[in-house]
Amino acid sequence: MTGMRWSSDDHPYVVPCLDIRGGRANPSAWHEGRACDDPVEILDRYRCQGTEKIFLDIQDGWRDDSRFLPLLRELCSGGGALLVSVDNGRARDDHDVEAVLGAGAAAVALSTATVDSPDLVSRAVRRHGSASVLAVMNCRRAGDGWQVHVDGGRRATGIDALSWVAAWSAAGVGAILANCLEREGATEQGYDIRFTRAVVDAAGVPVIASGGCGEPAHMVSVRSRAGAAYALANTIFHRGIHSVSDAIRHCDGHR
């Protein structure tokens, strides 16, 4: 088990996200007028700016684990709590979960596996502890509610989002990352407050809000209005629109 800690009043609650493919940041991150695709350098910068939790989305398939696991070990050795998803939140078996945690990840993030391999996710909770398992939910609107999608948001499952949240909270995952696919990417409209509030109300565990952050004020809003424990952001940091330290300072000023 790891020493990972989830809390609804954690600080700082800003969670940068870094996408990695083929050992490089994808897309590159901009810093001081230059592009950088070295994930080690990017994570070091995020850590220096005060973040404690970082979400790593490793987009390579598990067949490439001989390449990305050494990189993951290097990234984890730098400190902080890395929340790691591989291949759209898949895990082929218990060994894959153990490989991620054994490399030093604070938590393994599972999305597609919660639908395709639910028994595997439940075993991960029992074997490694609740704090070591982060359940990731990608959703789109469906009527008056939301539907769970997997395979990076490409495959609709027909599963009601709030039923999924209740089930995995009861199963003992440490936290839930709730990503709104309509807001994801470079929309910068802000988090979907109604969606996040509904997830928080249905969950018995801390919730990470995801999808649509365009400025630090959006992070404050999703925490104060929707009750999110954490706010994940990608584009605003990668494009150099705001620094992680700027976001943390802004959030600290509105506690």
Automatic annotation (TrEMBL):
<dbReference type="InterPro" id="IPR050064">
    <property type="entry name" value="IGPS_HisA/HisF"/>
</dbReference>
<protein>
    <recommendedName>
        <fullName>Imidazole glycerol phosphate synthase subunit HisF</fullName>
    </recommendedName>
</protein>
<dbReference type="InterPro" id="IPR006062">
    <property type="entry name" value="His_biosynth"/>
</dbReference>
<comment type="similarity">
    <text>Belongs to the HisA/HisF family.</text>
</comment>
<dbReference type="GO" id="GO:0000107">
    <property type="term" value="F:imidazoleglycerol-phosphate synthase activity"/>
</dbReference>
<dbReference type="InterPro" id="IPR011060">
    <property type="entry name" value="RibuloseP-bd_barrel"/>
</dbReference>
<dbReference type="InterPro" id="IPR013785">
    <property type="entry name" value="Aldolase_TIM"/>
</dbReference>
<dbReference type="GO" id="GO:0000105">
    <property type="term" value="P:L-histidine biosynthetic process"/>
</dbReference>
<keyword id="KW-0368">Histidine biosynthesis</keyword>
<keyword id="KW-0028">Amino-acid biosynthesis</keyword>
<comment type="pathway">
    <text>Amino-acid biosynthesis.</text>
</comment>
<dbReference type="Pfam" id="PF00977">
    <property type="entry name" value="His_biosynth"/>
</dbReference>
